[in-house]
Amino acid sequence: MRIQARTVAVVLAVGALSLVAAPSQANEGDVTYYRDVLPIIQDNCQSCHQPEGQNLGGVVAPMSFMNYAETRPWARAIAHKVEAREMPPWYASAPRDVFSNERLLTDAEIETLLSWVEAGAPAGDRADAPAPRQFVESTSDGWSLGTPDYVFKLDEPYFIEDDVYDLNISFFKTLTEAELPDDVWVRGWEFKTDAGKVGHHMCGFVRGPAPGERPVEEAAAEEGAAGSGQLLTCIAEGAEAVMLPDGYGLRLEAGSTLTYNMHYHKDPGEGTGIWTQPEIAFFVEDRPVRYQVINDSIGNTGFEIPPGHPNYRIGMSRTLDKDIQVLTYWPHAHLRGTASRYTAIYPDGREELLLDVPEYDQGWQETYKYKEPKLLPEGTRIDISFWYDNSEERGARYDFRASDTPGHGPRTDDEMSLGFIGYAVELDEPANTTDDD
Ligand code: HEC
To answer: Which tens digit of pLDDT belongs to each residue from 30-44?
Structure first.
């Protein structure tokens, strides 16, 4: 429903623009596309808004903003989206400047874009244009970090049917002995969604073999993300590969099961169906590993959200039994989730806001990645809260029944309250040193 409403908005926006018959002539002093606007779009928009097949990872926005002709028809919509701070997508209000994947426009940049649209979106002088942005060079086989040691492609391609407009689905692959004979340390990983404009985002997980435990497929069917094991990352655009710092490694065990959690999103219609076969690649670390990366979650699964409640809070916490270096956060809720917050309470009582997402949007599963690992000492308590809106109004907008009492579950209209946290702990003995072998 929401998607259709958006499509209507696009049509209106484009329609409105054609009334602005202004030719692309710039007056003295006008903000112009080539001189003022393009640099902002290059830096903040093109990683997603580009033609299919050009970026890595393969997730691209439905419209490309690589040149004037492509951008101009969207001028009104751009003004609207940047003013509302809906584009570029970024949902954390705090802290600022600590996450490597932060996407924010400054007030001055927003002002420039608005003035440009106001002036009739003039092109200006092509000679003012900055050099085209160079996107991460891919290797010949399309990976940004070099040639991976292992590429695990889903065994069978999957067809996204013509009538699909919004689909969240998980695929699983258990690694055979031929595919991964031994446990290895990995230092990087990268995804390909193989779905172009239809891929909205992808999250990957890995769970080691656990004899006697139920298969990942079953656990995931009941618990969703929590049953899938360790989160690798989520990508909402290309080239969001993960490369750990030197000395850090994630243990990839032989016999592990990978989860490819996909969100597809397109206009339904005859001939719109496409085949997709996502891939997860790993880069092996042969050098000594001092810190083991663990992607854990602090969750609450025993809740029930009262029917009609407009602002229900669910909390959870954990006190650390050792020092950890935090690398990532991934707050995970479903349709009713409206906000999430992570706070540290240090052993001396001092509090620090670790992550504040005041307007959570389940359509964008963002992993927040620290530029530098964040140390939290033993004895620190991590408090996580999620807020939910189970009102009629939100139910009508997001297509769920507000008269329900949702608890923890994997379906989109169940709820989740999972605070994922990726961190590193120091190993007692460094791994991959020569005495191991
Ligand atoms: C992380 C990827 C990403 C980045 C970065 C990004 N966008 Fe988008 N954008 C999308 C996707 C995906 C959509 C499709 C609609 C949706 O999913 O919300 C979209 C949709 C849009 C739309 C169409 C909205 C409508 O009316 O349907 C506009 C306009 C837009 N983006 C402008 C921008 C601008 C301007 C920037 C940079 C300042 C930007 N975007 C940066 C991913 C991105």
So the answer is: 899 999 999 999 999
Contact 408, 333 (CB under 8 A): no
For residue 419, the one-letter residue type is G
Residue 363 corresponds to which tokens in the numbers above? 């359509």
Confidence of residue 118 (pLDDT cuts 50, 70, 90): very high
Tally of residues, the chain: 437
Spell out a b/e string for 154-185, using b for 16 or more CB atoms within 10 Å of the CB, else e.
beeebebeeebbbebebbbbebeeeebeeebb
Neighbours of 325 (CB within 10 A): 19
Going from the Cα of 432 to the center of ligand 1, the distance in angstroms, rounded, reads 43
pLDDT the model gives residue 264: 84
Who's near 29: CB < 8 A, 6+ residues apart? none
Q: Give residue 52 CA to ligand 1 midpoint distance, Å.
A: 15
Q: Taking the CB of residue 29, how many other CB atoms lie within 10 A of it?
A: 7
Residue nearest to atom 35 of ligand 1 (CA): 78
Enter the tokens of residue 277: 């076969």
Sequence-distant (≥ 6) Cβ neighbours of residue 304 within 8 angstroms: 405, 406, 407
**Closest approach atom of ligand 1 to CA 105:** 38
Average pLDDT over residues 57-75: 86
- Residue 373 pLDDT > 80, yes or no? yes
Nearest CA to ligand 1 atom 2: 48
Residue nearest to atom 31 of ligand 1 (CA): 87
Distance 56 CA to ligand 1 centre (A): 17
From 45-54, 249-258, 331-340, the region with the lowest mean pLDDT = 45-54
Atom of ligand 1 nearest to the CA of 13: 26
How does pLDDT run across 264-292, given as a tens digit for each residue? 878 889 998 989 999 999 999 999 999 99
Is residue 317 within 8 A of residue 384, CB to CB? The reply is yes
| 16-20, 140-144, 268-272, 341-345, range with the lowest pLDDT | 16-20
Question: Which atom number of ligand 1 is nearest to the Cα of residue 74?
Answer: 29
Nearest to 419 by CA among 236, 225, 204: 225
From atom 16 of ligand 1, which residue's Cα is the shortest distance away?
61
